[in-house]
Every structure is written in C-alpha cells, then in structure tokens.
Write a structure and sequence with these properties.
This is YetF C-terminal domain-containing protein. The chain is of the alpha+beta class and about 220 residues long. It contains 8 helices and 8 strands.
C-alpha cells in the first residue's frame, strides 16, 4: 500500500536528514550563514519530494541529498583553513557605534537601520544610546554592546576583540586600541612568540596578551 511506503520513507528520511545535519555541524538556526541556509532548504525540499514521489527509487532520490552534504562538509573544512573564505561566506562583524557615535556609513553598508539598532539595544536593557561606547553587529545578526563604563580596561583596550586569528593579524582591531602590527610583533617577541602564523588566537586585555598556539 502507498500509505505504508510513504510512512517508511518518512521515517527513513527523517533519520537520514537528522544524521546529515549532525555531520554538517553544530550551529544553531540563528548562526546559519547564507550557504548553510541554502543547503538546509534544498535538503529539506529534496526530502519532501523523496517522500511524496513513491514512483521513483529512493536510492536515486538520496543521491542529490548526499552530494549537497558532501559539498557542505567540504566547504566547512575549507573554511576552517581559510579565514578569507569564512569572511566571504559568514561575513564580518561591523561596528555600528564607535566611541559613542553611530556609524551611518557602516549601517547603510550592512542594510541595518536605526529601528533595528534601537530594538536590539532595548533587548539588552539599554534605553539611551549615550550609554554605549561600542556596538558590534555580528555576522549572526546579534548585537554585542560595550557600555562606556565597561568597554575599556586600564590600558585602553576594548573587550573581546582578538588581535590574531588563525595566524592572521586583525589590523582593524589593532586600530581600535590605537596599536599597530609593529607593536604586536614586539610584544609577541618579548613573550617568545616569533612566528605569528603559529598563533591560533591572541587577544589583549588589562595590559596582558593571551596567546593560544596552533597544534602542530
């Protein structure tokens, strides 16, 4: 009976798609980038077609789903190795409030309007923009906010801004703390780190560098 075939196809595809999404990664819905969302929608649609179209072999209907899965896993692996690709696919954090002033140019560039900004500030119990020193729009769409009373430490550095990621110096972040790459190289050398490319992550806070070296 057709109802029996539809039922077992539904159960099988449910299990297969759950396993596929576990392989693809651990991101939440609000953390999906454009590529992730496209793959999720395509796999979901192909799954529905495979359930409804009982006239075709389920094996052949699974092939495009598996191909999409392999493409996504491959892209994810390449993203781990390439910060440039991550920036293309995931986007970059954008500073929408800088030193208490709204950056209209960056907001227009990211198609982020003032109503959205005020809404997200209210979600963080901030009713007055004058309380904010820095606000950063993350690639996921969330807003990271640093109040004027807490955004800087004694050395003038801003919280949560990495200086090195995957061996690549974050020049924009250095500019925000009024430092440059020469300063960073000197500070790293003082601590015995001569090759920036071997550094997985480095941040600066309270006058101290935190450095995490890549596994060889």
């Amino acid at each position: 009976m057709e109802i029996i075939e539809v039922s077992w196809r539904t159960i099988l595809l449910y299990v297969v798609i759950i396993i596929i999404f576990r392989f693809i990664g651990q991101r939440g819905i609000n953390q999906l980038n454009v590529i992730d969302l496209v793959v999720v929608l395509m796999i979901s649609e192909l799954g529905v077609v495979a359930i409804e179209d009982t006239g075709d072999s389920l094996f052949y209907q699974l092939i495009p789903i598996l191909i999409l899965t392999l493409i996504q896993i491959g892209l994810t692996y390449i993203q781990l190795k390439s910060q440039k690709l991550r920036r293309v696919l995931d986007g970059q954090p954008i500073i929408v409030i800088r030193q208490g002033k709204i950056d209209e140019k960056q907001m227009k560039k990211s198609r982020y309007n003032l109503d959205d900004l005020l809404l997200q500030l209210r979600d963080k119990n901030i009713g007055d923009i004058r309380e904010v020193d820095y606000a950063i729009l993350e690639p996921s769409g969330t807003l990271s906010v640093f109040k004027k009373s807490e955004s800087k430490d004694d050395s003038g550095s801003i919280f949560l801004l990495p200086l090195v990621i995957d061996g690549i110096i974050q020049e924009k972040h250095l500019n925000l703390i009024n430092k440059n790459s020469s300063w960073l190289f000197n500070e790293l050398k003082k601590r015995g780190y001569k090759d920036v490319k071997r550094i997985l992550y480095c941040s600066f806070l309270n006058g101290h560098l935190f450095v995490d070296i890549k596994n060889e």
